[in-house]
Amino acid sequence: MHRVREARRLFAPAKSPPAFSLQAYIDDGGLQFGDGRRIRFKAWVSRKLGAVLADAKLDARQQLEPSEGGYLLKAMLPCSWKLRWWILSKSGDIEVLAPSE
Question: How far is CA 25 from CA 9, 15, 18, 60, in A?
């Protein structure tokens, strides 16, 4: 936005491509830096992080199963930089089990 010098409202309705769903695009990771692939993510998470993920799920079908000292997290997630940076920000509370990369 820092490069925008001027804006004006157009009164013409926006046109979407046929069969395009913005929600499906977002759900598929379209707003994240990545290649569009979804991965089967599996990790051990601490009790503290597990409590957060119980309320703020990473995926609608996310699973949290009690495990020694925390939880086993399973979810289908977009393979993206956003996910990698999130994992790094939680380094004391997460151990990635799969995928290996």
Answer: 25, 16, 13, 15
